[in-house]
Design brief:
Elements lengths: L1 H13 L1 H8 L4 H10 L6 H13 L3 H12 L1 H7 L5 H10 L6 H14 L2 H10 L4 H11 L1
Helix pairs in contact: 7-8, 8-9
């Protein structure tokens, strides 16, 4: 069934009519029914599992970039003055890596969330973040 789902998603990426149909679909069951009407056989759990994996799957280029960064002193120095995720993405793309600023930020956030307490504090403090500014930013998102 996984192959059926991948085939359906590949068709989706190239078919604007199908994309419009799915924009109007408001449930997972509706997505499954649209796929079924096109001859694809996959289930709601297949679809949910795929999207969950997509959300948490690390970008291979990001992983490769971070590995390279840990080993390449010249790259570390090149990135040292950069203060934004977009700046890191710009440098990484010059080196052939392709990931978004959001992917980089989410990776860092996941690292903070999964770190033990002392490591999380070290990572946070090492960035020199102003905690009051962080609280203000969090206020804007609620």
């Amino acid at each position: 069934m996984k192959e059926e789902l991948f085939s359906f998603l590949n068709e989706l990426s190239a078919d604007e009519e199908l994309q419009q149909t799915l924009r109007e679909t408001t449930s997972i069951q509706g997505l499954v029914e649209v796929g079924s009407s096109r001859g694809y056989k996959f289930t709601e759990p297949d679809l949910i599992h795929h999207f969950a994996e997509t959300l948490i799957r690390p970008n291979d280029d990001l992983a490769s970039f971070l590995k390279n960064l840990s080993e390449d002193k010249e790259l570390q120095e090149k990135l040292r003055p950069i203060a934004t995720a977009e700046g890191v993405v710009a440098v990484s793309s010059q080196l052939g890596y392709h990931f978004s600023a959001a992917e980089l930020i989410r990776h860092f956030a996941e690292t903070l969330v999964h770190a033990d307490d002392p490591q999380a504090v070290i990572l946070f403090d090492a960035l020199g973040w102003n905690f009051a500014s962080l609280l203000w930013a969090l206020k804007l998102t609620t």
